[in-house]
Design goal:
This protein is an alpha+beta fold. Among the domains are: 73 residues, Ubiquitin-like (UB roll), CATH 3.10.20; 39 residues, no CATH class. The protein contains 8 helices and 16 strands. The chain starts with 5 loop residues before the first strand and ends with a strand. The structure holds FE2/S2 (inorganic) cluster (FES).
């Protein structure tokens, strides 16, 4: 049998498939090489240089996210040289903007902060760079704080490669570099569709959910997994719940059908759940108005009226409309009720086409 190609990582050999990067082989085998710019299922950009590893016979450190494994390669992931490089990279990233962790609402779920803790980097080596661009929050969904942007490009890949919206890209050059929408217009004036994929991909707090800002800290509340009810795709989402209120929605990564992605409705359209105008009790029409009723009274009335219509005007005088916003099971029960009880096949659904 032909021997499979393998690389040695931190002294142990690991077989790999052709085309796999060092990072991918390491990940698959539970070896943690830190990353910042790497975004799964997109082409590596090698922008952040935090995943640098020592490769035997190479003259410089190499980016594990971009370098394909080759047979016989020997790699060190946490050698003194590697750690020194990562520490310097983190110092430079911290000084590239205003990463004021004490007041930052992203503290606790910031990848940059996490790596600074891991490598003991305090950000005291270099002075922080004053902000070059004013924060933007001229839309109801996404806030952009350019002083916290490390230009890793994950948001650009999330927008262009994952969602294929092509709404944002790198703009300007050198010290003036900035992630821009259209010709550096506010997001609301660009072709951004506010799916929020960029916010979910941001490893710092440069992109924030506006509706959740200052409402919840990462370790507060509980996360409830659910299925989005806006359409029949069945996207998996996390509801971030505090004091019995949904304060944020994020996509569940690593599982289908959406693999972490959501649309604008799924991610931001949850206000209706706790809206004060929402009906909490059945209403029965009386004359020009409505009066509150109990469920028993309302259901009895509906059963009586539908029964009368079926018996006097015939079953086909009744039509039943269901909704994509309820579960398949609920829709099944509705059509069963229409066919078995009302005796009509007049059943339709807003997502039928
Ligand atoms: Fe490899 Fe950023 S994760 S260069």
């Amino acid at each position: 049998m032909e021997k499979k190609a393998s690389i040695t990582i931190d002294g142990r050999p690991y077989p790999f498939d052709e085309g796999e990067t060092i990072l991918s082989v390491a990940k698959r085998n539970g070896i943690d090489i830190p990353t910042l710019c790497h975004l799964a299922k997109t082409t590596p950009t090698g922008a952040c240089r935090i995943c640098m590893v020592e490769v035997e016979k190479a003259r410089t450190l190499m980016a594990a996210c971009a370098l394909p494994a080759t047979d016989g390669m020997v790699v060190l992931t946490e050698s003194p040289k590697v750690v020194k490089s990562r520490r310097m990279t983190l110092e430079l990233l911290l000084s590239s903007g205003q990463h004021d962790c004490v007041t930052c609402t992203g503290a606790g779920e910031c990848r940059l902060q996490e790596l600074c803790m891991r490598y003991g980097v305090t950000g005291k080596k270099f002075a922080p760079t004053p902000p070059r661009y004013t924060p933007e929050s001229e839309n109801p969904f996404i806030m952009r704080n350019f002083a916290k942007c490390i230009l890793c490009g994950r948001c650009v890949q999330a927008c262009n490669d994952v969602q294929v919206n092509n709404a944002i890209s790198f703009g300007y050059r050198g010290k003036k570099s900035k992630i821009v929408a259209a010709e550096d217009l506010p997001l609301k004036d660009s072709q951004c569709v506010f799916c929020g994929e960029c916010v979910q991909a941001c490893p710092t707090n440069a992109l924030m959910y506006k509706n959740a800002n200052l409402k919840i800290r990462p370790w507060e509340g509980e996360k409830v997994r659910t299925t989005c009810s806006y359409c029949g795709v069945g996207c998996q989402m996390w509801l971030h719940v505090l004091d019995n209120r949904i304060v944020k929605v994020t996509g569940v990564t690593g599982v289908g059908p959406n693999h972490g992605s959501l649309c604008v409705k799924g991610r931001f359209g949850y206000d209706f759940v706790g809206h004060p105008d929402r009906l909490t009790t059945p209403l029965i029409r009386e004359g020009e108005g409505f009066r509150e009723a109990s469920w028993d009274e309302a259901l009895d009335l509906v059963a009586k009226r539908l029964g009368n219509i079926r018996d006097t005007a015939g079953p086909d005088s009744i039509g039943v409309l269901t909704s994509a916003r309820v579960t398949n099971e609920a829709n099944y029960v509705v059509q069963k009720f229409a066919r078995a009880v009302l005796k009509t096949n007049n059943v339709d659904h807003c997502a039928r086409l």
